[in-house]
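thread: overnight batch results

M.L. [08:02]
morning all. the overnight job finished for the chain we discussed friday. pasting input first so we're all looking at the same thing
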Amino acid sequence: MSTSARPEAPKRLVIASRQSRLALWQSEHVAAELCKAYPQCEVSILGLTTRGDRILDTPLSKVGGKGLFVKELEEALADGRADLAVHSAKDVPMSLPAGFCIAAIPEREDARDCIVSARYARLEDMPPGAVVGTSSLRREAQLRDRYPGLEVRSLRGNLDTRLAKLDRGEYDAVALAAAGLKRLGLAGRIRATLEPETVLPSPGQGALAIECRDDRVALRRQLAALDHRDTADCIRAERTVSRALSGSCQVPLAAYAVLRGDRLFLRGLVATPDGRRTVRAEIEGARADAEPLGEALAKLLLERGARDVLAALS
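M.L. [08:03]
and the structure it wrote out:
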């Protein structure tokens, strides 16, 4: 929460949101936090369908990646239909279009990945050839590396769609972000959480990003009331790693930061999609140096072999 003087309260705010159940939960959560900060403010949600929501039969890595989930929301900000947009931070491109900014990052939920399965309690219990579904090249690469006997398949769709495919028996297990399940009251479906030592999270995973137009100076000050400094410092470090490596859905890339006092510990990974080559590195430093730490970790990864991996994927 920002410690600066409280700005003048907004009278009415419109939030642009994707229309999936999870996206609407996230926007409603932000709306509730805005109403706590500004009790007299009227907050409404404008539901929109993005290109990423419409294209469900092709892996994200082949149809344009992260920007597929934000463009229509940014158009609503640009033409004044909405004042702010709420995204999963991991879905926000590492470089925003000119004229937009991330105004606040609320407190993070669980950043870890998890396994949902009706048949198996752990990945270690699954027999060779068992099918694990995931929508992420990052998860796919790390699962192939750690569990080479499993068959990892692409799985698109929103959270409910992916769970339905699992329940129909199309997959033996699915790998998902734990935060989404917890936010929707579905934590009971988690069979096992995947610790970062096993599967390193995506930059920004478990966090929300609140976007607005860069020229809305008063609004940016108002939204700063929702910013969580510890989370924001970690996310800035993680996003810097990805930005420095030109990270996208086409690249299996992970970055995860944690704070211990005023020290920031940052880990990163770059891999080939088949998991046969994985480059890992970690670094620590002062939290005030979140972005320089991200740049330093990216450089370390490149020196350890990520440059060759990225060149092969380009």
